[in-house]
Amino acid sequence: MNGLTARWAATARGGTVFSAAGVWPLLAFLADGAAGPARAELADALGLPADQAAAAGRELLDGLAALPAVDTALGLWTKRTLELRPEWQAGLPAAAHGVLTGDVTADRRALNAWAAERTGGLVERMPIALTDRTELVLAGALTMRTRWLRPFGEVPLETPYAPWAATERLGLRRTSEVLDRVGVADTPHGWVTELKVLGTDALDVHLLLGEERMTPGGVLSAGVDLLARPRTAVPGSLLPYGEAGPGLRVDRKRCATPDRPTLHVVTAAYDVTASHDLLERPELFGLATARDSRQGHFPGISAFPLAIGSAGQSALARFGARGFRAAAVTAFAGAPGGAPARLRYVSREVNAAFDRPFGFLAVHRHTRLVLAAGWVTDPLPYPEEPEEPEEAWEGDR
User: How confident is the model at residue 158 (pLDDT cuts 50, 70, 90)?
Assistant: First the structure.
């Protein structure tokens, strides 16, 4: 599944956040019910045969649900007149099967409520265009949260980067004796500095800073590659003195006593949101053929001809002094494909795209599975007035 993350990351152009882990199981269930070229394209995007897809999708959802820091949900809604193949429906994880009433306003309200409830209010809307032609909606919600094992202190961010320096930003600072939390790698895209911020429940966030010439996609792709080849990064304890990597300098410090080595970290707090129309890059997700409404592509889902009419993801990530939270809602809407002439009219699609200086990967420490990834272009401003300490951090809920 990290392969889809890497391919998606390579397309990143500006500030964004996305979750391939939120898309992959839904593509797997679609592949299980697809036929012809659509089935082959979905299998290629998944990286495994279509006849193994549904089982792999269930296994991934079960594995994610077993992680203490992660919550998942799956929803299916269909028109009353749409008859599903029992064997396909039975292959989905146990989930409520809702009904599309045909009242677009009421259906949209219900789907938005589901998205908000399943993400604790982090994502408030279902990321698809719903119309009176929508026959089926398959959606997934994924949330993750972690508290830092060692919190940061909040400080004004001092930076030579002009766009960020124009407004005082909220910086995060901490000192550690574990030098190897940071490392530098020579990647095919350029030099990348990687900092691992460890959280509770084995959910960590890796911060990635590349050379200034590198694109967001190049830095994020390099970060995903490092998960598979971690030993290619030179750890902090072995770095040479001087400028050792992007944003990284190693100095000799004279001390009156035999002080331990220290790692000083400064970064920026951020709150990133993004909406993705998955049909803008249909080849990436194996949907090039499946979106062709001139014929049906999912006979394993229903005898009624279906095509993908809309596909999207809304995602959010928040990185602060005490922890990290992220959520993503992904949905696919099935519309008539190759239907009788009386149903052949063009429905309006509403497409949203979210539009650079360090990247991040939310990673399950033991499996190295990327749950969310993104690029930060606009860190949070430094608060004008200090906030009162909270009794409990919101991520504990």
Answer: confident
Calpha distance 371→141 (Å, rounded): 12
> What CATH class does 2-146+270-356 carry?
alpha beta
Over the stretch 72-95, which tens digit does the pLDDT of each residue have? Answer: 999 999 999 999 999 999 888 766
Q: Estimate the crossing angle of helix 2-9 against helix 20-33, to 10 degrees.
A: 110
125-138 pLDDT, tens digit per residue, is 999 989 988 999 99
- Asked whether the beta carbons of 299 and 33 are under 8 A apart, the reply is yes
Please report the pLDDT score of residue 238 as a whole number: 87
Asked whether residue 392 carries a pLDDT value surpassing 50, the answer given is: no
Cα–Cα distance between 254 and 251 in angstroms, integer? 10
The radius of gyration of the chain from alpha carbons, rounded to an integer in Å, stands at 23
Contacts of 284 (CB under 8 A, 6+ apart): 4, 7, 8, 11, 45, 278
- Give the β-pairing of 70-79 and 97-100: parallel
Q: Taking the CB of residue 60, how many other CB atoms lie within 10 A of it?
A: 17
